[in-house]
Amino acid sequence: MKKTWIDRQQDFLMGLLRPLVAIWMRIDAKRVVKKDSFFDFRRKEPYVMLANHTFMFDVIHVPLCLRTVPFIIASQTLFTKQPAKFFVTQVAHVIAKSKGKSDIITIKNIYTAVKKGYSILIFPEGNTTFYGDTGYIEEATMKLIKKLGIDVITCNVKGGYLSKPRWATGKRKRRQIELNYQLTIPKEQLATLSTEEVAQTIRSALYHNDYDYQRQVMIPHPGKQLAEGLEDVVYVCPHCKSINSIRTNNNQIHCIVCQKEGYVDQYGFIQGFIYDNLIEWNEFQRNYRDALRRSQLSSTGILSFMSMEDESQNIIGPIELKYQEYKLYLSGSHTEEIPINEIINVTITLRRDLGFIYQDKHYIIKLDHYSAAFLRTLQDKY
After folding, report:
1. What's the pLDDT score for residue 23?
2. Smallest Cα–Cα separation from 100: which of 301, 346, 268?
């Protein structure tokens, strides 16, 4: 299948911008690249590459080593505003994966890209990790890989999470990542494996615990606000079991109920609390979902409605979002009462953009606080 005019335009513009992007990424983080002998960065034959999603810019770092830029599968909700919309439709090779729509269109676009000779890059978790380890991967991704029938390359990204945690509002210095590329499943072997075997192989290749990695390398990431934003992802105090009682300031962590205090050190570890990392803290707090759902939550934010037809966002304005007794209450620029059992397709994008569908309307609320707590009251998948 021949490339279209827009394909050629994107190829040209990406080639033109590559040197500038490379400089930008060198400023963003020091990059250590490793690969096995079976994968060539100059390769032209199409393949599907999968990578774990550790921080926002790994979507740029991972394909930067490749001579031919692949088509990247990305959430539609990330590209509903200018100038990002222009970049992903006119400059970069991007296939939108829509929430609330059938995956048929996405799959069709993937097959078309492969027929044109392009490779595909997927971050199968769908979201950047909040806690530091590789998250849930949809079974549908494994089925797609089987149907594509091309080589499966994996890139395990290490160090990105603690260099730039998704929840963090403060900057870290000395950011560094390690990219590990390998041919994980040759296409000849892919044909002989079941979907379950493919899933097991890929999950094993992509799994990464950034705290375990940091214990080995101990790269310092100093900063003056290392703890700020932590209350967006932890909502149960591990000492007194209070809900939504964690507060942060600069590098300090504080429970307002039991007065327990601690801090985040320059290596990203938590000092003074039972858990020195967010992976174990999150495993602990997931046992308190019923208590969380019985609690009350409140945050200010900005409400937008997303149009699935033209992929645009209509900003409504500032609101207060409250959760109480299994309902969401919106007030301010928009007033509404929403039973949570009627909500579907709940997601968190970027740092704390809460998205969901209610009565065929797609809500996006840029929360100021407590994104993980709101997410867990509405669903317990992630």
Report:
1. 95
2. 346
